[in-house]
Amino acid sequence: MAPVACSGDEWSETAMLVIDMQKDFVDPVTSSAALLTGEAILPTVTEAVAIARKRGIFIVWVVREHDPSGRDVELFRRHFYSSGKGLGVEGSKGAELADGLTIEDGDYKLVKTRFSAFFATHLDSVLKTSGIKNLVIVGVQTPNCIRQTAFDAVALDYNNVAVIIDATAAAKPEIHLFI
Fold first, then answer.
1. pTM, whole model, 2 decimals?
2. Where does the Isochorismatase-like domain lie (predicted)?
């Protein structure tokens, strides 16, 4: 990942959204549903977060956490929760951040229940009241959560919305690159 030249003031207006980098989605030891491509990007995501911290970029950890019953999950996924195979169940090991990723002082944790980090959350308010105008997005999955969050960020008039391609992943590389 090549460094981007930017003044310190510009970084204070930038936030990094780290999306769904949880064990259920990227750790095949914890979850049979984890993406191997998600596990593969973990070192790059870790490096991107470290660089963002050095630059003073606001880190937002966007996580999926669902009620064990699945009543807050999309209708098309509810059957997984009734059979006990739901992902991102609040308080479960699978809902934890992947190994090596930690929420530090000054970071922000946002819980979402849909693809977009903006849908039915207070993310836009948190970012705008923090003076954030630019977003850098990393995490999983490109065709769902990454894409929808990026589209919503553009619709909400963020100046620059960047997706770090080697710090994002989809179930299949061809889907990731096509998006």
1. 0.92
2. 14-176
**CATH number for the domain that contains residue 122:** 3.40.50.850
Is the peptide bond prior to 141 cis by the omega test (within 30 degrees of 0)? yes
Give CA–CA dist 12/68, Å, rounded. Answer: 38
Please identify every stretch of the chain with a pLDDT value under 70, giving residue numbers as ranges: 1-10, 178-179
Residue 75 lies in a domain: no
Between CA 137 and CA 145 the distance in angstroms is 10
Specify if 90 maps to a domain: no
Q: Quote the CA–CA distance of 76 and 65 in Å, as a whole number.
A: 16
Taking CA atoms, 164 is separated from 28, 40, 78, 178, in Å, by 23, 14, 31, 14
pLDDT at 9: 66
**Dist. CA 165–CA 169, nearest whole Å:** 8
SS (H, E, C) 100-136: CCCCCCCCEEEEECCCCCCCCCCHHHHHHHCCCCEEE
Of the candidates 38, 40, 47, the one whose C-alpha atom is nearest the C-alpha of residue 19 is 38
Structural domain boundaries, residue 121: 8-64+100-178
